[in-house]
Design brief:
alpha+beta; 5-stranded antiparallel sheet; two-stranded antiparallel sheet; 2 helices
């Protein structure tokens, strides 16, 4: 009986430890600025930050650190093509970006990262003669902690 209880406890402990994941975000920014003036990139942060270091309570009103401490300088920046050029929308550029982004996703998958979720949004002024904006896509991955 003791062996069964010990075996069950060990199995439950293994299951709980298997649920520990780390998460990674990769951000794709694709410019909607015409004439090739925008900048489109994949951003993959290589540094880690603890949000608690930059969080303050409403009771004391003090931050634990300066905003400049948040800045990350260690990241990968992969070039993408802009959606527009002088001739208008470039479907070739969109297809090229899809190939590069797919390559990034496949590379992370071979490193053990599992695609978990994709979240995207658009920013545009949309005012008179608006020709500016960005598509931003955050790709969220997870991997079991080692």
């Amino acid at each position: 009986m003791k062996k069964i209880i010990l075996l069950a406890f060990t199995f439950n402990t293994m299951l709980l430890s298997a649920q520990e994941y780390e998460y990674k975000l990769v951000t794709c920014i694709e410019s909607i600025v015409p004439n090739g003036l925008g900048r489109s990139r994949i951003i993959d942060v290589q540094d880690k930050r603890n949000f608690k270091d930059y969080t303050s309570g409403h009771t004391d009103g003090r931050n634990k650190s300066d905003r400049s401490d948040i800045r990350v300088e260690n990241f990968e920046e992969t070039k993408l093509l802009n959606f527009y050029n002088l001739g208008g929308i470039r479907f070739e550029n969109i297809a090229s970006n899809d190939a590069v982004i797919s390559s990034k996703i496949n590379s992370l998958a071979t490193e053990g990262w599992e695609l978990m979720q994709v979240v995207s949004g658009v920013e545009s002024d949309a005012g008179t003669n608006d020709g500016q904006g960005i598509y931003i896509t955050r790709i969220i991955f997870k991997k079991k902690k080692q």
